[in-house]
Design brief:
single chain; mainly alpha; two-stranded antiparallel sheet; 17 helices; about 70% helix; globular
């Protein structure tokens, strides 16, 4: 075999779960994943820290820890420890699912109570993952397909929010943000059309680079955060003393259950869209266990829970790059960002509008994956009823969160603005109560 043939054979491994890819070729694919999730990875920390009144130094420390923990979690998902990890191309990051409940718990009981609750809740979810084979049967293919579709729909507003400039930004929806978002999106699509071979799969990275350069030329990139950033620093252990308060633990454990359902959906979507097969019980078990135990570890570094990132599932589904080694390069980049804060601060200068231009299509890919999964289950009267009612209640009701006003605060925190949680509960209930032979007579 000559050198050229060997090189082609190596790079073709990006479409295979296993196999080595030349490091120089693997790094861009890994970096593409990190750029796609970086802003979303630090945003929940900024929101919760602000609600809890933490200082700027505390926030900087938590962002650094978040990158380190996300890197560790991603590596364990790719290369499992015992039964912890799925051995799938899953990227881990700080979860948005917990933001609303932590913004309630933090001001009421303190940030230490959040850390105690995350430690307990993470262990609970981790144990549930290890024993998933005993309860996994209630998550039938039609339930998983419905949850995957709802995840895709729930992310569309996230992509649109980034496209506009990011929630709360002073220039949200401005012409500048529209220009940046559109240039980035057109660059992604154009590169995907014109590029040859495996280069097509770097369309998101190309779009981000073009959008970033245009943003610099337009004066839309703020470099002030780099001025006071340390070049190297190591995250601290137990920067906040955990406080074990049942008033914080109970609602947090409930949200961990919701997070586990999202992880099932993400893992199912990844296998269906990228590997063209159904997810196995072992993969579901390892994925949930990793979510839980890494979240518990996250609390030791003062961070909120970590989970599989749906936007990266969308990126894998769009590019079909499933090679674990390429994602390992991304995980290493996150570890470096956790040890070298200056690196993470530089990545954080990526404007929201540029990110939004890329994520819109990625999130739409998850919707399409869910629809394909539903189609594979069969368009029967029973399946149609499960999907239609679950989606209409889950997505419809959460558009009007005031509907939940009469309910206790804990219920509002779990369901009022979390369509995936409602879709999951509705799909499970309908799947259990509807006759198996519905519509056949």
């Amino acid at each position: 075999m000559n050198k050229t043939t060997q090189k082609t054979a190596d790079i073709s491994n990006i479409y295979k779960l296993d196999g080595r890819v030349p490091v120089g070729k693997a790094i861009p694919f890994g970096l593409q994943h990190i750029l796609a999730m970086f802003v979303a990875n630090i945003a929940p920390i900024i929101i919760v820290a602000g609600a809890c009144g933490l200082s700027d130094n505390d926030v900087a420390m938590l962002i650094q820890s978040a990158m380190l923990i996300a890197g560790i979690g991603t590596i364990i998902q790719l290369y499992p420890l015992w039964r912890i990890g799925s051995r799938l191309p899953i990227v881990m990051g700080i979860s948005f699912t917990f933001v609303s409940v932590f913004c309630f718990i933090g001001p009421a009981y303190g940030y230490g109570a959040i850390m105690g609750a995350v430690l307990v809740g993470g262990i609970v979810e981790g144990l549930l993952g290890l024993f998933a084979k005993y309860w996994r049967k209630v998550i039938t293919p039609i339930v998983a397909a419905t949850v995957v579709t709802s995840i895709g729909f729930s992310l569309l507003s996230v992509g649109a929010d980034s496209f506009g400039g990011g929630s709360g930004s002073e220039d949200f929806g401005s012409a500048q943000n529209w220009i940046l978002g559109c240039i980035t999106l057109v660059s992604c699509i154009g590169f995907n059309i014109l590029a040859k071979s495996y280069w097509k799969q770097l369309s998101v990275l190309f779009g981000l680079i073009v959008g970033y350069i245009v943003a610099i030329c337009m004066g839309a990139v703020d470099f002030t955060a780099l001025q006071n950033t340390s070049i190297i620093a190591f995250p601290k252990l137990l920067p906040f003393k955990p406080v074990f308060d049942m008033r914080a633990i109970i609602p947090t454990v409930l949200i961990f259950l919701v997070s586990a359902t999202e992880t099932i959906g993400d893992t199912s979507a990844l296998c269906s869209a990228s590997l063209k097969r159904n997810v196995s019980d072992k993969e579901i078990s390892g994925s949930i266990a990793c979510d839980g135990f890494i979240s518990a570890l996250s609390s030791v570094f003062g961070c909120i829970p970590i989970t599989s990132f749906s936007q990266n599932v969308g990126l894998v589904a769009m590019t079909k790059v499933v090679n674990r080694f390429t994602l390992l390069m991304g995980a290493i980049i996150m570890l470096l960002a956790g040890i070298f804060p200056i690196f993470g601060s530089f990545l954080a200068t990526l404007p929201d509008a540029v990110l939004g231009g890329c994520t819109i299509m990625m999130f739409g890919t998850i919707v399409v994956s869910g629809i394909n999964m539903i189609s594979a289950c069969g368009i029967t009267q029973r399946n149609t009823t499960i999907v239609a009612l679950s989606m209409s209640v889950g997505i419809g009701f959460t558009q009007i969160p005031e509907l939940f006003r009469f309910m206790p605060q804990i219920v509002q925190s779990v369901f009022a603005e979390n369509c995936v949680a409602i879709v999951f509960v509705m799909a499970i209930i309908l799947n259990l109560i509807l006759p198996k032979d519905m519509g056949e007579k």
